[in-house]
Design a protein that fits this description.
The protein is mostly beta strands. Helix content is 7%, strand content 48%. It has two helices and 31 strands. It has helices at 2-24, 244-247, and strands spanning 30-34, 37-41, 45-53, 61-65, 71-78, 81-88, 92-100, 107-115, 121-124, 128-130, 135-137, 140-143, 152-156, 162-165, 168-171, 175-183, 190-197, 208-209, 215-218, 231-232, 258-259, 266-267, 275-282, 286-296, 301-307, 310-311, 316-318, 323-331, 336-338, 341-349, 354-362. 29% of the residues are buried.
């Protein structure tokens, strides 16, 4: 009896399976495709949907493009449905054909027109400041949004200072250069970006040093970068308080003590061990003298200067000016030879002197 029941169950399952096979093997009679036509941008991807009828028919299809140089197609199965993924390649026309995998004579077509959106301009947001060994991405925008010929070519004017690849700038050595981004399809459409490579960067610069005329560098225009980079101050807060730096766009130097005066302002309330860094760009290579303007109400002013981390002067001393605003010129000796390009000059306080400016000029 048990054997008979098992046989009946197996026979029923076989019959049911046979019905299912018969159901899925219904030959397709008609088919539809949607959309029947479409416009596609170069690089854009759209989906074409195909359905065979009756619904029980085989829903497997073969997709093809009449012109793959203009538009390509590949199949993707989504929720059990065959979708043709069409990608625009170049301007022109193509026909996407979808045929039943079971009946190749049963087919439908979608007419595709591929068009381009030409680039009108390249927008650059900011110049680049980067340290040696550091990388930064150049922020640009190709306009209009959705432009199809947006492939770009990047070049550096001086790879020994900075290199660029795919919009990423790498600092190599201290100095300045430019990188250019151009449209591959039209190199005349290009923009140039200034690149500064350094430990710190000029504030209200560039500070150009040449033989043509003396250059007066205000003490207030020390480099950006903040504590330990553009300056070092032993105490918190500005005792001036003259908000020269923040008023001119630098919110990262709150602890340097700056006061206003008839000359535009000076650094004061200093202490031994504090320093201010200045990035200068030398145009003419040669020998230069550096003259510092300092003041102190009693006792000698004391300071020293380093250039590119090399001591240029040991302790320089100026006699008491008997007033914090009675400025004395102290010429650093000897003169210093500066090569063309970027240099980092650091003014070191050896006591609590006021500091107004440094003047760079051709040495006699």
């Amino acid at each position: 009896m048990k054997k008979y029941i098992v046989f009946m169950i197996l026979a029923y399952a076989t019959a049911l399976s046979s019905c299912e096979d018969s159901k899925t093997s219904v030959p397709p009679e008609t088919m539809t495709v949607s959309p029947s036509s479409a416009t596609v941008k170069i690089k854009e991807v759209i989906g074409i949907h195909a359905v065979a009828y009756p619904k029980e028919a085989n829903q497997q299809f073969v997709w093809a493009s009449s012109n793959p140089a203009v538009a390509t197609v590949s199949e993707e199965i989504i929720a059990g449905m065959s979708v043709g993924r069409v990608t625009g390649i170049s301007e022109g026309n193509a026909v996407i054909t979808v045929a039943s995998a079971e009946n190749a004579s049963l087919k439908s077509e979608t007419a595709i027109t591929v068009y381009k959106v030409p680039t009108e301009s390249i927008r650059v947001f900011d110049d680049v400041q980067v340290a040696p060994g550091e990388q930064k991405v150049v922020e640009i925008q190709v306009l209009p949004d959705g432009a199809t010929d947006d492939e770009l070519v990047w070049t550096s004017a001086n790879p020994e200072v900075a290199t660029v690849k795919d919009g990423v700038v790498t600092g190599i050595a201290i100095g300045g250069t430019t990188v250019t981004v151009a449209l591959l399809a039209d190199p005349s459409m290009n923009r140039t970006i200034k690149v500064d490579v350094g430990i710190s960067f000029p504030f209200k610069g560039p500070h150009l040093i040449s033989f043509a005329a003396p250059y007066v560098l205000s003490a207030l225009n020390f480099d950006t970068g903040g504590e330990g980079v553009g300056y070092h101050d032993n105490s918190a807060g500005n005792s001036g308080p003259y908000n020269y730096r923040s008023a001119n766009g630098d919110s990262n130097s709150p602890d340097v003590d700056i006061e206003n005066n008839a000359y535009g302002g000076n650094v004061g309330w200093s202490a031994a061990g504090e320093w201010l860094a200045y990035s200068v760009d030398v145009i003419d290579e040669g020998d230069y003298s550096i003259t510092a303007k300092v003041a102190r109400s009693s006792g000698d002013c004391a300071f020293r200067i380093t250039v590119d981390d090399v001591i240029h002067t040991n302790n320089m001393v100026a006699p008491s000016a008997n007033d914090w605003q009675n400025w004395i010129d102290v010429k650093a000796t000897p003169s210093i030879r500066l090569t063309a390009g970027r240099h980092r000059v650091v003014f070191h306080f050896n006591n609590d002197s006021n500091f107004l400016s440094m003047t760079f000029e051709k040495a006699n």
